Amino acid sequence: SAPAGEAASAAATTAPLPPLEQAGDFVADALTGLVGRRGVLQFLQADNFVQRVVATVDNLPSKHATPRLWPVQPTPGRFATRTQGDSLQMDADNAQRYLPLVQMVETVKPAQAAALYRRLYPLFQQAYQDLGYPQGYFNDRLVQVIDHLQATPQVEGTVAMTLTEVKGPYAATAPWLRYEFADPALQELSAGQRALLRSGVVNQRRLLDWLAAFRTQIAR
What we know:
Layout: H1 24-43, H2 49-59, E1 81-84, E2 87-90, H3 95-107, H4 110-130, H5 138-150, E3 160-163, H6 175-178, E4 179-181, H7 184-187, H8 191-198, H9 201-218
Antiparallel strand pairs: 1-2, 2-3, 3-4
Helix pairs in contact: 1-4, 2-4, 3-9, 4-9, 5-9
């Protein structure tokens, strides 16, 4: 089903939306109104933003979500590990790399984000159909994926890592591909759940709290 709350925002949705393929500037302006110009430039991939959101949301529950399609900029710096005795562990300071993005998300009220989402929803729905889902609703998929992310385990304390086994002639250069979780149960999690684990348990809780509040705004 389409997102809840449409009647409450009907007055804001009277102006026609541009077609998806021509909506770049319209969406970028709307995002600027939500997070500010600096927020857009620093954190978001505004080009084809709607298509990026739809593709990424759809991919997060799978094992791999292509970073080049993400709607957010890559996290600066490199994934950090440290050696403790014979054990390779995720560096606790690694969470600092993700903190600016988490703080930016928290500056946006979930109700405001949901209002913009409802405003732009026909574009999201079109992008979802273009992705190969002519019958379904993107909003149903979004709620399903938020619920999937909420099921991510919270790992307190140290998180053991291991170097990725090279399965071809070339080693992976992307830092998030160079390391795997040593616990097979964690490594078998989806791309979205592993990304939350890499952000650190405090950031994970903060992001999931925000998503839970956003979900209540869009789910029937």
